[in-house]
Amino acid sequence: MSQLLLGKAAIVTGGSRGLGAEIAVQLAKHGANVLISYNKAQEEAEKVAQTIRQLGQQAVIVQGGSMDRETPTRIVQTAVENYGKIDIIINNAGVGDDCLLKDISHDFWDLVYDTNVRMPAFLLKAALPFLGLAPRIVNISSIAARAAYEATSVYSSSKAALEGLTRSWAIELGHKYNATINCVNPGPIATDMMAEAHPNAMDFWNAKVKETPASPRMGTVDDVTQIVIFLCEDRSRWCTGSVINANGGLVPV
């Protein structure tokens, strides 16, 4: 196992399943202690935490839904109580349900924007007094932020907003906190959550991924996680305010 992140304290939101779970485990494999936040999947979160502990690193889990405005503070307080500082934040938790414009409700809008925009912003705000010497913030976006798909106006705009926050935070926090803030832009990933998608959605993506320049296939969690881990290491110190293409070139800009 690499020790490039030895002694680092990391927060991974939405770390109980899919990409978030793999990121949490890989951070531990590189030496970091990890806090995993989850909404409803407590059993899955505990399994990820147990895997991390078996790797010799510390792991704690925290329940917190994105609609609960106390969640960011609770996550940060738990991290500081256990690790004394925060070196890495992976804003991975997200909501991506499709919804046509004619069907958008205020409740749906609030759910998507609270999860994909407000939660990352207020989590980082709460963490500012406790950041380590060279903090790394990685926000998980989506190709939907830059590509046009039907019924994704709320989701797409929320991810575009997250990318805008990334660029602003890089300027605002770079000198004051010695921080780098970057965004990773995945395409469709073969996870259990993708497998649970509507059959029509799966048919669309199975056809779409054949256009992927890097390889005519769906991405894997490892494809994306390796990029995220790099952005958490000192080797990425000269990269900030960037949106990193992690979709095999399916949406290259």
Task: Describe the structure concisely.
The chain is α/β, with parallel strands linked by helices and 253 residues long. The chain has eight helices and seven strands, in the order βαβαβαβαβαβαααβ. It starts with 8 loop residues before the first strand and ends in a 7-residue tail after the last strand.
Structure description:
- InterPro entries: KR_dom, NAD(P)-bd_dom_sf, Sc_DH/Rdtase_CS, SDR, SDR_fam.
- One of its GO terms (biological process) is monocarboxylic acid metabolic process.
- This is 3-oxoacyl-[acyl-carrier-protein] reductase.
- Its EC number is 1.1.1.100.
- Keywords: NADP, Oxidoreductase.
- There is one protein chain.
- This protein is an alpha/beta fold and 253 residues long.
- The chain has one domain (9-240): NAD(P)-binding Rossmann-like Domain (Rossmann fold, 3-Layer(aba) Sandwich), CATH 3.40.50.
- 44% of the residues lie in helices and 17% in strands.
- The chain is built from 8 helices and 7 strands.
- It has a 7-stranded parallel beta sheet with strand order 3-2-1-4-5-6-7, sandwiched between helices.
- Strand 2, helix 2 (42-54) and strand 3 (59-63) form a beta-alpha-beta unit.
- Helix 1 (18-29) packs parallel to helix 2 (42-54), helix 1 (18-29) crosses helix 8 and helix 3 (71-83) runs parallel beside helix 4.
- The longest helix is centred in the middle third of the chain and has 25 residues, at 153-177.
- The chain starts with 8 loop residues before the first strand and ends in a 7-residue tail after the last strand.
- 43% of the residues are buried.
